[in-house]
Every structure is written in structure tokens, then in C-alpha cells.
Write a structure and sequence with these properties.
The chain is an alpha/beta fold. The protein contains eight helices and eight strands, in the order H-E-H-E-H-H-E-H-E-H-E-E-H-E-H-E. The strands form two sheets. Strands 1, 2, 3, 6, 7 and 8 form a six-stranded parallel β-sheet that branches. The protein has a two-stranded parallel ribbon with strand order 4-5. Strand 6, helix 7 and strand 7 form a beta-alpha-beta unit. Helix 2 runs parallel beside helix 8 and helix 7 packs parallel to helix 8. The protein is globular and about 45 Å long. The two termini are about 30 Å apart.
């Protein structure tokens, strides 16, 4: 399995079952998620596209971006979407110390009120998992990756993989960041139409 496969294999999610990888496979529902925002152009675009289909989503926000764009952060919630903590500085759990990382999560929590947490790059350690759970966080990963962040991929290949890999309960990752915006504009609208045409609803993540 590559470092960032389009779809997480079932055996892998079962091996690390303490994390939330996907929802109920019986219901015709998916969970759209957006990482690394909020940013003025990209997040505004995402909110407009979601509204067209009446879809709800979960936005994993970087604290530094919330500090720069508080009005967009507020708008996300006003539109009925949910937010999650994505650290303050988009830290890599494999290079930052445990204390540095948890302090960065706390710094983000001063601006982002949520019990949902997604580790940047999908990277996490056992010590951090324990520390985050002690703080009351639910760690949210994914089973489908859009590929919108990869400059070496075409929008067509991303869209084809998304359609192929989406299943009931899928947690799908997009990025409402400046870096991914060009690809996102090409991928997101047709993918949302695909979901609607095939009977899927999109809900914000809610875990107990």
C-alpha cells in the first residue's frame, strides 16, 4: 500500500480500529471532509457547491488559518457544517515531539471548538493517540482520498478514482487550501453531482 492510497483497505482500518475511518456501510450516506482551511477562495467555493446539493460536511481547520479568516470559520458553522481540530500549524506527528504536538492541538482548540481531530498527513503515534483521547478527542481518518493535493495527477484521474472507491459510509478527504484549489474546482462539482445522482446524502461527522 502506498503512503497515500486512493482507498484505505478494509484490513488496514480493522488493524487500527480505535480511529474513525468510515461510517455505517448499510446507509446510503457519505461524509465529505475538507482539510487545511479556512481560506477565502477555496472555502467559499466549497460552501457554495455544498449548498447547491444541500450537503453537509466536516471541515478540519488549521488554527492559524482560523485566526486569519475568522469570518469564514464562522460561516462554515452558520451553514450547518461541522468543524474539527487539525492542529494550529499543520504539524507532522512523525517529526514533532509529543509535547509540542499536543500543545499545538491545544492552541488550535482556543479557536476551534470541537471534539473531532484529524492528524495532518494522516500521521499519528501511539503516544499522541493516548494523549488526544485523554483530552476527549475522537480521531477521524478516512477511507477515500480525493488526490486534489497532488500536482502530478490529473483531475480526470482523481474523479475516476473517487467514483470507483466511494461506498456507503465513506469518509472522503478534500482540501479547501490555496494549494489544492485549482484541482478542487475541477473535481468537486462533478463529484457532488455523481453523489446526488447515485442517491448518496452527505452528513457532517458525529461520533460519540
Amino acid at each position: 500500500m502506498g503512503l497515500y492510497p486512493d482507498r484505505i483497505p478494509y484490513w488496514f482500518s480493522k488493524l487500527f480500529s480505535s480511529y474513525f475511518w468510515h461510517g455505517d456501510r448499510q446507509n446510503k450516506r457519505v461524509y465529505l471532509t475538507f482539510d487545511d482551511g479556512p481560506t477565502p477562495e477555496a472555502t467559499d467555493f466549497v460552501l457554495r457547491e455544498l449548498a447547491k446539493q444541500q450537503f453537509q460536511a466536516t471541515f478540519f481547520c488549521i488554527g492559524d488559518q482560523v485566526a486569519k479568516n475568522p469570518e469564514i470559520y464562522d460561516l462554515i458553522q452558520e451553514k450547518g457544517h461541522r468543524v474539527g481540530n487539525h492542529t494550529f500549524h499543520h504539524l507532522n506527528a512523525w517529526t514533532a515531539s509529543t509535547d509540542e504536538y499536543l500543545n499545538n492541538v491545544d492552541q488550535c482548540a482556543e479557536l476551534v471548538s470541537s471534539n473531532l481531530f484529524r492528524p495532518p498527513y494522516g500521521r499519528i503515534t501511539g503516544k499522541l493517540t493516548k494523549g488526544l483521547k485523554e483530552k476527549g478527542y475522537k480521531i477521524i481518518l478516512w477511507d477515500v482520498l480525493s488526490g486534489d493535493f497532488d500536482p502530478n495527477r490529473t483531475s480526470g484521474s482523481c474523479l475516476t478514482a473517487l467514483k470507483k472507491n466511494t461506498r456507503n459510509g465513506s469518509v472522503i478527504v478534500f482540501h479547501d487550501s490555496e494549494k489544492s484549489f485549482q484541482q478542487l474546482q475541477k473535481i468537486l462539482p462533478p463529484y457532488l453531482e455523481f453523489l446526488r445522482e447515485n442517491g448518496w446524502a452527505s452528513k457532517a461527522i458525529s461520533v460519540s
